[in-house]
Design a protein that fits this description.
Elements lengths: L5 H4 L21 H10 L2 H4 L19 H26 L3 H4 L6 H11 L8 H13 L12 H8 L3 H10 L14 H6 L28 H11 L16 H23 L5 H12 L4 H6 L4 H26 L1 H6 L12 H18 L3 H26 L5 H7 L13 H13 L3 H11 L9
Helix pairs in contact: 2-6, 4-6, 4-12, 4-15, 6-12, 7-18, 12-15, 12-17, 13-15, 13-17, 18-19, 18-20, 18-21
Length: about 450
């Protein structure tokens, strides 16, 4: 068995409430189902309905937003976890007695999937780029001397993954001082890149391709890692090997966005039905599917069937890879995403989908337009709020501007990093529409209604 072990990795202990009695599985909901429900009913999760996934938010044609994407990822993630558990139970009929929380793997993964995009700002990856560039080439570059080198690395490489952990654990003013108080296992399962910004951005090392926690949450993740027995990455000071369930959360996300972006592109007329069919049929692995498709007169229904079949195939294949390579995951030596470790024909089919997506979808005019507009909006908000919040002697305008920041985003700390981080909490949490509306008002482009 690997260096890490499921007995320790699967913990119902709650962040901030470690001394409370853990669920004895006799209640209506397990501890991990409670995680899922807390996220579903939370404000940050609801705000995902108005955050761009890829395409501009819907007008007359509905496309996915961050919320619908997260729900679908959670559904796929639960299936991946359930298949893994069923295979483990087949191999060992006594597994429920030896590892009572293993049957909860599907719930842990689905909760982590729900929260995997919580930290993403408005306007998708364009929002992340705008925040980073404000500090690297924008007005924010003047603040470099006011923070440490490690803190500056956070600011110049804003990362939605790290921001999700912060949202879930940070003691925002007026809120529960323990954040969402999720279980340790759910928190660990969302951290795809378990290192600080100073050790991330290594493209050839999969678990350090980006980074997973800000300096403000470094101690938080250290505590989670120690509790669950995560393996230290000896190559870097702040790094760990992934919690094994991260691979299943990542696979659920990869499966959904690769396949479902094609469905949205078809609805918007960016891709013709024949193009979508040629891309998805090789993934479906169903020799009778072509006949079923021809019986459906509605092209949207055909695409829906192709999407369902493709996702089902990838779920089964990714779960098989995870089960067969369990020791490698527990040793922390599995160095690529599950979707790249399935059979060669599927990998080639997914590579083709990615190539077409980059060329036809992610560079479509409507997508680029929202990215450019979003970049301007996010940068404009930071130019207003960060200097005002950092000033010692604020002007009347600064005071009125900061009154627009809700109380929860104000900090009692006086250091520049904490104050900047607070503004980033406020701005990154905005929905697309709210960010545009606030930007227009503070720039004098529009005025509040007097009704």
């Amino acid at each position: 068995m690997g260096i890490m072990n499921w007995q320790q990795l699967l913990s119902a202990k709650r962040w901030g409430y470690e001394s409370r009695r853990q669920d004895d599985q006799q209640d209506a909901r397990s501890e991990f189902q409670r995680d899922y429900d807390r996220l579903i009913f939370s404000s940050p999760f609801r705000r995902l309905q108005n955050k761009t996934q890829v395409f501009p938010l819907p007008g007359s044609v509905f496309v996915h937003n961050r919320l619908t994407h997260s729900l679908e990822v959670a559904s796929v993630g639960r299936s991946l976890g359930r298949i893994f558990y069923n295979e483990m139970r087949k191999a060992n009929p006594d597994i429920d007695r030896e590892l009572p929380y293993l049957q909860e793997v599907g719930n842990i993964i689905s909760a982590a999937c729900l929260s995997h995009d919580l930290g993403n700002p408005a306007f998708g990856h364009s929002g992340e780029a705008a925040i980073s560039n404000y500090f690297t080439v924008g007005m924010g570059s003047i603040f470099e001397e006011q923070v440490t080198g490690a803190e500056w690395a956070d600011l110049t490489h804003f990362e939605g993954n790290a921001n999700a952990l912060r949202i879930l654990t940070h003691p925002f003013a007026g809120k529960d001082e323990h954040g969402f108080a999720l279980t340790y296992s759910t928190l660990a399962a969302i951290v795809k890149y378990p290192c600080a910004a100073t050790d991330g951005h290594i493209k050839k090392v999969h678990h350090r391709k980006k980074y997973g926690f800000f300096q403000s949450e470094r101690a938080v993740f250290d505590k989670i890692a120690a509790e669950l027995g995560l393996v230290k990455d000896t190559e870097v000071p702040t790094g760990y090997k992934r919690h094994p369930l991260v691979y299943l959360v990542e696979a659920a996300d990869d499966i959904c966005y690769n396949i479902i972006d094609l469905e949205d592109a078809h609805r918007l007329g960016i891709l013709h039905y024949e193009q979508v069919e040629s891309l998805l049929l090789p993934v479906c692995r169903d020799e009778h599917l072509k006949e079923r498709l021809q019986k459906l007169a509605d092209f949207d229904s055909r695409v829906s069937l192709l999407r369902a079949k493709a996702i089902n195939t990838l779920i089964g294949e990714c779960a098989t890879v995870f089960t067969k390579n369990q020791d490698a995951f527990l040793d922390g030596v599995f160095g690529r995403p599950l979707i790249e470790a399935v059979d060669t024909d599927l990998v080639e089919a997914m590579d083709t989908i990615e190539e077409v997506s980059v060329k036809k979808i992610y560079n479509a005019q409507s997508v680029v337009q929202i990215e450019v507009a979003g970049y301007k909006v996010m940068n404009g908000l930071l130019e207003e709020f960060i200097p005002a919040y950092l000033k010692q002697d604020r002007t009347p305008y600064d005071t009125k501007l900061l009154a627009l920041m809700p109380r929860q985003f104000h900090t009692r700390q006086n250091d520049a990093y904490a104050k900047i981080r607070s503004v980033l909490d406020f701005v990154s949490g905005m929905t697309d529409l709210y960010a545009v509306e606030l930007y227009r008002k503070i720039k004098g482009i529009s005025f509040p209604s007097l009704d």
